Amino acid sequence: MEKSVCKSKEWAAHVQAGSDHAERYIDRLISVLQSIDREAIGRIIELFLQARARGSTIFFLGNGGSAATAAHFANDLGFGASPEGKTPFRALCLASNPAFLTCLANDIGYENIFSWQLRNLMRPGDIVVGISASGNSPNVVNALLYAAENNGIPVAFTGFDGGRIKHIAHYCVHFVTNKGEYGPVEDAHMVLDHLIASYLAHVD
């Protein structure tokens, strides 16, 4: 009985601690979102609309949670923002083919898994969106460098101090955070996805 009572008190302590943590996390996320450059988002929206008008492809890429965000972005532009009766967005995630990714990683190195795909697929004027909290992932850096050097348009969605891709990209949305704050950065990138896609879904 005594052990059961102690356990109940332990669980109750987690309820309060979890509630306090939730409040701190939400407050931090709000502060990260409020600090964003709204004009930078507007420039990305204009860039994507121009890509749709000229039939260019928008490639999304990232690692881990950012790979999931890249896939979500491509989904939301390719479906949610491309309803019947409207010119569709050509949107593709380069992190979604495990067979090809593991082939490239095994044979030419993980740092080249995105740039090799761009070598095969990218045309002049296409947009390459690198999503990375740190901005320093070698394969994302190499992809944006490839775009910059081959008449593509490199775009960065990043966090922390922006990393290398902030300085490679022609367009950048940078959520400034402390190093290692992956959660708020990745949350903010998903908000950015839904913000952009919801606007594009209602623009002819």
UniProtKB/TrEMBL annotation:
Output the superkingdom of the source species. Bacteria
Keywords, ordered alphabetically: Isomerase
Under the heading PANTHER family, the entry gives: SEDOHEPTULOSE 7-PHOSPHATE ISOMERASE / DNAA INITIATOR-ASSOCIATING FACTOR FOR REPLICATION INITIATION, SUGAR ISOMERASE (SIS)
One Pfam family name is SIS_2
A single GO molecular-function term is: isomerase activity
Task: Name the GO terms of the biological process aspect.
Answer: carbohydrate derivative metabolic process
From the record, give the transmembrane residue ranges.
none
Q: What is this protein called?
A: Phosphoheptose isomerase
Question: Start and end of every SIS domain?
Answer: 44-204
